[in-house]
């Protein structure tokens, strides 16, 4: 009985020793795995930090590039607008000069017509004075001739005056239509440039968002 007891105690002691050793080995293995995981985690964190720094540098480079693109687009649009404004201003000055030129021609023609009418009236008075002192037999003939001549001259002058007025009126209407068309083209061009500017800005914003999201 004592021998069996000793054997059982020895077996129990061996089992407890084995369990203790197994526990110690398990704890050491766990500690080793923990150290390895900590090293892997530290390396992973360091890689992530390096990637963040690289991404920050890339983001800064993209911001600088986008800022330069915006400046170039704004400069080009500004130059185009200034060029169009100068062109419209030149067309406006030319149109005003043309209108003034037409008005001057109208005034000159009106003065010539008035002078012609004045000379015609003066001729009528001269003819009337001469007719009053001329002989009786020439009175009717001269009067009829003068009347016919004056009538022809008046009719011709009236026809010429009306034709010239019609021509100048047509030129004036055409000039007004040209002014309206230039104003319309200017408004359409400004709207087009504004839309193009907005589309360029939106495209740049979308491109930047796409780059950020893909990264």
Automatic annotation (TrEMBL):
Family statement drawn from the similarity comment of this UniProt entry: Belongs to the POC5 family.
Compartments reported by the entry: Cytoplasm, Cytoskeleton, Microtubule organizing center, Centrosome, Centriole
Name of the protein: Centrosomal protein POC5
Organism: Callaeas wilsoni (North Island kokako)
Coiled-coil blocks: 31-65, 158-192
Main location: cytoplasm
Keywords in alphabetical order: Cell cycle, Coiled coil, Cytoplasm, Cytoskeleton, Repeat
Annotated function: Essential for the assembly of the distal half of centrioles, required for centriole elongation. Acts as a negative regulator of centriole elongation.
GO term, biological process aspect, one: eye photoreceptor cell development
Superkingdom classification of source: Eukaryota
Originating gene: Poc5
A single Gene Ontology CC term: centriole
Keyword Amino-acid biosynthesis: no
């Amino acid at each position: 009985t004592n021998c069996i007891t000793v054997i059982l105690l020895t077996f129990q002691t061996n089992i407890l020793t084995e369990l203790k050793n197994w526990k110690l080995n398990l704890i050491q293995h766990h500690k080793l795995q923990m150290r390895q995981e900590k090293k892997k985690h530290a390396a992973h964190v360091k890689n992530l930090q390096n990637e963040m720094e690289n991404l920050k540098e890339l983001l800064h480079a993209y911001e600088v590039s986008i800022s330069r693109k915006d400046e170039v687009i704004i400069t080009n649009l500004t130059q185009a607008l200034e060029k169009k404004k100068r062109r419209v201003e030149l067309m406006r000055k030319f149109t005003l000069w043309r209108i003034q030129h037409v008005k001057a021609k109208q005034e000159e023609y009106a003065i010539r017509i008035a002078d012609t009418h004045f000379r015609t009236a003066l001729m009528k008075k001269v003819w009337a004075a001469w007719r009053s002192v001329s002989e009786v037999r020439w009175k009717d003939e001269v009067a009829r001739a003068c009347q016919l001549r004056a009538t022809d001259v008046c009719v011709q002058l009236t026809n010429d005056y009306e034709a010239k007025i019609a021509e100048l009126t047509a030129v004036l209407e055409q000039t007004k239509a040209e002014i309206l068309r230039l104003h319309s083209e200017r408004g359409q061009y400004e709207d087009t440039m504004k839309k193009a500017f907005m589309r360029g800005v939106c495209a740049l914003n979308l491109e930047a968002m796409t780059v950020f999201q893909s990264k």
